[in-house]
# Entry
Amino acid sequence: MKIIVDGFGGDNAPACVCEGAALAVKELGVSVSIVGDTDRLRSVFSEKGLSEDGIDFVPAPDVIGMEDEPTEIIRSKSDSSMAVGLRMLKEGKGDAFVSAGSTGALLVGATLIVKRIRGVKRAALAPIIPSIEGNYMLIDCGANVECRPEMLVQFGVMGSVYMKRMMQVKEPRVGLLNIGTEKSKGTPLQVESYPLFEEAPFHFVGNAEARDIPFGGFDVVVSDGFSGNLVLKLTEGLAGALIGEIKGIFKKNLLTKLGAATVLGPMKEFKKKMDYTEVGGAPLMGISAPVIKAHGSSSGKAFFNAIRQAADYARSGMIGEIESTLAKKEA
Amino acid sequence: MKIIVDGFGGDNAPACVCEGAALAVKELGVSVSIVGDTDRLRSVFSEKGLSEDGIDFVPAPDVIGMEDEPTEIIRSKSDSSMAVGLRMLKEGKGDAFVSAGSTGALLVGATLIVKRIRGVKRAALAPIIPSIEGNYMLIDCGANVECRPEMLVQFGVMGSVYMKRMMQVKEPRVGLLNIGTEKSKGTPLQVESYPLFEEAPFHFVGNAEARDIPFGGFDVVVSDGFSGNLVLKLTEGLAGALIGEIKGIFKKNLLTKLGAATVLGPMKEFKKKMDYTEVGGAPLMGISAPVIKAHGSSSGKAFFNAIRQAADYARSGMIGEIESTLAKKEA
# Structure
């Protein structure tokens, strides 16, 4: 199993990329190709005393940045580490690709270079989000700002297959993000999607109200990219704000500091539970080979988790099942 | 100052309505008309030992429920406590109206019975939501599932006037709910609204990303009703889920219970800060007289706060300013 990693994507590249890759080789027994400025990558390995066993460095002279137009990945930035990595994936020089770089560029690059699974209308960005009960996949989260009902149905299929094969959920519960539980609720997109969801080849459990999602009850929440992005970002922001406030309470005085000490262990567990970097990155669902978007501010640990997720994805047989399910549906 | 209150709206009606009304008379020096089954209302007052000073009971034989179609408020439910209260407001028999009943019915009733402010295209439901920094108005939150850019501009005007007159914010910072800070982000609605916001008669500070909103930085966040409802409900749900988890941590064992005791005071303050019932209810902005939607599960305290908010609204001169601002804009 070989994972291709973009050495120059994200805020902490290349240092955390190298750390995550070295740890993945050691812990998971995979090999890793890191793409980018090989001199810089090698110097990170030597500075940090990381072993180069199982690692190879693939040169790419350029980097696509957050400020670049996503489509530049197939134009002026076709020699960027992200573009080179995606071409390697397409050519079978690795089993999966991980990048913490620009989401837009990764989406365009994956769609145009690696291509979509046969029958898939649109790729979708689908992070795994913590809830009180466990985790759910939120699909789409920003790849497709506007969607048609048929696209949402496909997102449901892909999310359901992911949760079954990757998270061992026997019969994933799929919900449609909406502002009420009734069939008639929402914009025309939700109203038209509801009856299609009832007929779809997955376990549809009804509309998913934003108030209920954090408590669990859904393994997959399907949404257009605009609404999904709101849910993702608000979850991040609100969890950060609330945890920050509680930390502030604990630091108020000596007594509260002592109080905090007694709950430190469970609080850490809780923080870990709410930390989506623990589950890796967000898969780009619908691409014909595994592509994982790691969070822009990924640490070494987060890169490690994203590489593990990429390896699991490559082993899962998911892509074949998505293709056959969609083909059956159309037939 | 007389506030009209729907005696039979919400999960805790009529008991909590009566408690809130009696407290409002005592604390705020307003008088209150409570609308509904007068026998039942009077028996709540006597059972709870509440004073009837400053209270009058207005009979209404019917109640509009959550399961009724909102438009029934002007048809089969025109004798409901909500409809009777709204007609009283229209006829000048009170200065403001408060109900914890069906949001849809209240919106239809307020629009068709009380009518909109001249020049206002659509009324909007606009709760005040806590952030780490203070509070912001989220407008619209579900009254208008689909919106046009001109409607969003009016929501910005109304929200800005509200925060200035009611919350003493000198120059309210208005943000457009979106999935990125760039002008080009979002669906056509946001993209087309951005340049209109730049020219609008309020202090536009740019797109409001869902990740940033909980930390503050905005006094008004403008949205279509679908997206706004997602933000409102997710904020409620996530705050509830996180606070529940933290309570669970505290209850783990004797040591953590002792720890919890030391932070109990500040935790209560924090919970109060995150509790939107503290600020009252959600005003229906754009209606030609003050209408406040109290939360469906309002306690006596929450009804009291909603009545206080209604009285402040009636005193604020807000409706005149909204009308003149919109007239100036059109001129």
User: Anything to note?
Assistant: The two ends of chain B are 34 Å apart (CA to CA). Chain B has eleven helices and twelve strands.
